[in-house]
């Protein structure tokens, strides 16, 4: 198990997660075998696995290689929309990602809409190119985080994407093109691609698996970037990479990516905030990535969180968060 997202239907918490069989043995092979599993809980700690949500489509299709990370929102008419990443291989064998959705009335049985609703366009967002112009190892356009407009003007989608703008031949600059991709919809079904909500050059080759959340009164943007996907200067500075937290003026930014900080545990990846319905407290969960060079592939119990100045402090949810005076 690795990337995941959470939904509270008012009675139960729903956990949707990427998973693959450990019979693959090579943990890196999981990405091309990913399906979307589903579990439910009443307390965020004890989970019951239920029927899987989505699997890849038969070829040819935009998701015929794997189904990857997404998010779930509820339409005003009561339908649930799951936006997810579809992965396929192009004629060069490169991984090309685009975004589709599926609809459900009960969060258990999902029907995919035909085809992708969004893909990289090559003008605003970088498309993969073969050597010698190859600019990245895949066509990064994934991890849709969908949220309602704060003023009631439709819906917004934040997307893991890379800017099409930037020097073409400097490897260091090519690594530094990760942006907060953006799209807008009036109805969740038809989407308009828009300019990114951040600029390239922020120090990240890609910003993965976004979440916007208000944590104890402060608006933040949560994202993820491993040190291997950052420019050489970051690696030289000893940055460990992992889960990052940036302050934000609003859900649509501006985001303080230059001031973003990592959580203290580099073994965790793809963090998510969830509000505890019983206590009203914000909790944090993540998946256990690598420890001692070994992939773990487990999702944590919730952590309690509190602000220590501009940094978040984490503790097991049954413990009081001890913030220094």
TrEMBL record:
User: Domain named Glycosyl hydrolase family 32 N-terminal: which ranges?
Assistant: 10-212
Stored SUPFAM superfamilies: Arabinanase/levansucrase/invertase
Keyword Hydrolase attached:
yes
What GO molecular function terms would the record report? hydrolase activity
Classification via Gene3D superfamilies? Glycosyl hydrolase domain, family 43
- One Pfam family here: Glyco_hydro_32N
Q: Which UniProt keywords apply?
A: Glycosidase, Hydrolase
Q: Does the keyword GTP-binding apply?
A: no
- CDD domains from the xrefs? GH32-like
Q: Which InterPro entries match?
A: Fructan_Metab_Enzymes, Glyco_hydro_32, Glyco_hydro_32_N, Glyco_hydro_beta-prop_sf
Belongs to which family? Belongs to the glycosyl hydrolase 32 family.
What is the designated name of this protein?
Glycosyl hydrolase family 32
Q: Which organism is it from?
A: Terrabacter terrigena
């Amino acid at each position: 198990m690795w990337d995941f997202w959470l939904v509270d239907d008012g009675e139960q918490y729903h956990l949707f997660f990427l998973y693959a069989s450990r019979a693959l043995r090579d943990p890196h092979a999981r990405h091309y075998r990913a399906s979307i599993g589903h579990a439910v809980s009443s307390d965020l700690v004890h989970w019951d696995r239920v029927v899987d949500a989505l699997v890849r489509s038969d070829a040819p299709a935009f998701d015929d290689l794997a189904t990857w990370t997404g998010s779930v929102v509820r339409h005003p008419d009561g339908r649930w929309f799951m936006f997810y990443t579809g992965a396929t291989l192009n004629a060069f064998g490169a991984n090309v990602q685009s975004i589709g959705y599926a609809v459900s009335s009960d969060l258990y049985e999902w029907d995919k809409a035909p085809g992708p609703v969004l893909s990289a366009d090559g003008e605003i967002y970088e498309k993969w190119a073969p050597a010698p112009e190859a600019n990245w190892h895949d066509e990064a356009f994934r991890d849709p985080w969908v949220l309602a407009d704060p003023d009631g003007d439709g819906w917004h989608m934040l997307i893991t994407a890379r800017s099409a703008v930037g020097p073409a031949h400097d490897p260091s600059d090519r690594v530094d093109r990760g942006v907060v991709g953006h799209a807008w919809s009036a109805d969740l079904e038809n989407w308009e691609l828009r300019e990114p909500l951040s600029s390239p050059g922020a120090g990240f080759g890609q910003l993965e698996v976004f979440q916007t959340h208000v944590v104890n009164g402060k608006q933040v943007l949560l994202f993820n970037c491993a040190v291997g996907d950052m420019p050489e200067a970051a690696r030289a500075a000893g940055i460990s990479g992992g889960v990052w937290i940036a302050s934000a003026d609003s859900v649509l930014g501006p985001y303080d990516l230059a001031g973003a900080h990592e959580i203290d545990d580099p073994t965790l990846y793809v963090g998510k905030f969830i509000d505890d319905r019983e206590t009203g407290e914000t909790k944090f969960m993540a998946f256990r990535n690598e420890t001692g060079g070994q992939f773990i592939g487990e999702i944590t119990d919730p952590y309690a969180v509190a602000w220590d100045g501009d940094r978040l402090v984490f503790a097991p949810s049954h413990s009081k968060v001890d913030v220094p005076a």
